[in-house]
Design goal:
Blueprint lengths: L8 H14 L1 H17 L18 H14 L5 H28 L13 H20 L8 H21 L3 H6 L5 H12 L3 H25 L3 H31 L3 H8 L1
Helix pairs in contact: 1-10, 2-4, 2-10, 3-4, 3-5, 4-5, 4-10, 5-6, 6-9, 9-10
Amino acid sequence: MRADARLAVGRVLAAGAGLWLRRFLPIHAVTAACLAPLVLVPEKGDRIADGTVQGIFGLAPTAWIVAFDCAFAIERGISRNAIIACLAQLAVATLVVRDAHARLAGRRGRSPPRAMLGLVAYGIAGLAGFAALDFAVVTGLEDADSPLPVVLGFVSTGVLQAFLAAWFWLALPAAAVDGCGFLAALARSRRLGRGSRVRVVTPLLLLLAMQAGSAVLAGRFAGSPWLFAVPGVLFLTLKACVLAAAYREICLIKEGPAPEEVGAVFA
């Protein structure tokens, strides 16, 4: 392993975005199938108010919903609906990462589909950890004499979560592609990112910033909660493709090509 290796951010973004565009229709057909239960369940209220739509926007928004629900008991079922949406999103990301990596690397993932059930633990653990951080901020709302500490708490917690998510970003493909268990996937993500931490974090932070901006615009002009969720769905699949490209690139840099890839060249 080369400790001084660095990830090429531009190449990763180009490879991931290019694959996303080429495979746009099949990728979003799978996404629609995974997220269909969230849409097809008979509507009993506001999809935004019950957390379903926000659950599609990633781990951090869902964690805030859970924290507020736990702190103020806003309405029974909000956390449950948001968590279901978040797990459906995790299923989409896992399937897209496996497919994208297979096409970029020319080999299928080593882990059987049932081994990917361990990714549920990855999602739940991340959600629980982020919700605990958010809960510490939320519980300070009642005691705050000024809005400034609350705003600083929200911002600092959000930034911390973004970096933590990016820090262990490579754990998802480590589990989905190479069959690592939950803790082994986190360790592999940390090991692969060593020496290229900022470059591993940068693509995700760029996409998160673009997603946040598009969500603000969609929220301003969308007439339906599901139109508001469209940026979340599109960036979910784009992030998965870029993640697969980043994992492929960093594995080549640090470990060289996999034995199956070398064998395919001489087959």
